[in-house]
Amino acid sequence: MNPIGLASGVLPEFDAATVVRAAHAAGFELAGLWVDPAEWSPAQTTATRQALAETGIGVIDVEVLWLRDGATMDDHKAILDVGLELGAANALCVSSDPDHGRTADWLAQLCRHVEGTSLRINLEFGWFSAVHDLAEAKAIVEKVDHERAAILIDPIHVDRSHTPVAQIASLDRSLISYAQFCDALAERPDVHDWDAVIVDAVDLRQQTGEGALDLDAIYRALPDDLPLSIELRSAALREGFPDPVDRASAVAQATRQWLETRR
User: Fold this and answer.
1) Res. 263: pLDDT tops 80
2) CA–CA separation, 231 vs 241, rounded Å?
3) How distant, in Å, are the alpha carbons of 134, 176, 200, 210 from that of 90?
4) Could you identify which of 16, 102, 173, 245 might form a hypothetical disulfide with 48, taking C-beta atoms 3.0 to 4.6 angstroms apart as the criterion?
5) Would you say 156 and 190 are in contact if contact means Cβ atoms under 8 Å apart?
6) For residue 201, what are the contacts with CB-CB under 8 A and spacing of at least 6?
7) CA separation (Å) from 188 to 6, 103, 118, 207?
8) Predicted pLDDT of residue 1
């Protein structure tokens, strides 16, 4: 069965060490870490490293490296350095720059920063960003042409961007190092309504198998045994499960049940 990771977005109000411990208690093998360079401290690195050592949990990714106004390359490198120090397998990056040439240059700099390591730089696509679909992400990553560069697949963004599942299946397997996973409602937001797009992605995701996406087709198009980050941002889960372990456990149980039927 695929290794599963607890995405940091499932527990946005908790620190990284708490996310790691909740992931372990709920039965995840991996956890994602949200690293804000303006707030992250050496003490957080120490606490998170201790939680990882005590639980045996791995770090599926650090996020988010976002090319947008106000962010600097120093900020992005600081996130990567935390990820390297804590053994992260991936870093999640997003671009809000409509110039895909500049996005490729930025992505190439990130890749060069982690040369000689095992960390992959994953470009996420979706209508919340300036890289709208898989075809655009693929073109950018191919332009970068670096072994550390990868593409992040998220079912909700696959659906909302009308990306054909066949494009995922035909993608060079070396360009996929992990994927996000969740379900979503059938109704798509207006892609030109920024607030609706964000609410859909941050508050309305559904437990795996409880929404309307063709998750089975997306899952079958991904490499076998791929690590999955369960990116289940949900207002209902946040309100219904205020305790981090309870929330993580609800997500793990639903995900494992769905995956069991795909074996």
Assistant:
1) no
2) 16
3) 18, 11, 25, 28
4) 16
5) no
6) 126, 128, 156, 157, 233
7) 25, 27, 36, 17
8) 85
**Burial grade of 260 (CB within 10 A; 0-12, 13-18, 19 or more):** exposed
Residues near 53 by Cβ (< 8 Å), separated by ≥ 6?
A: none
Specify the pLDDT at position 118. Answer: 97
pLDDT of residue 262: 83
**What pLDDT score does 192 carry?**
87
Residue type, 204: L
The identity of residue 209, as a single letter, is G
pLDDT digits (tens, 9 = 90+) for 247-261: 999 999 999 999 999
CB 19 within 8 A of CB 251: no
Do the beta carbons of residue 11 and residue 231 sit within 8 Å? no
- List the one residue out of 116, 189, 185, 177 whose CA is nearest residue 155: 185
**In terms of pTM, does the model score above 0.90?**
yes
- Return the percentage of the chain with pLDDT > 90, whole number: 97
Q: Which residue has the tokens 């977005």?
A: 9
The CA–CA distances, whole Å, from 174 to 15, 61, 148, 167, 223 equal 32, 17, 10, 14, 10
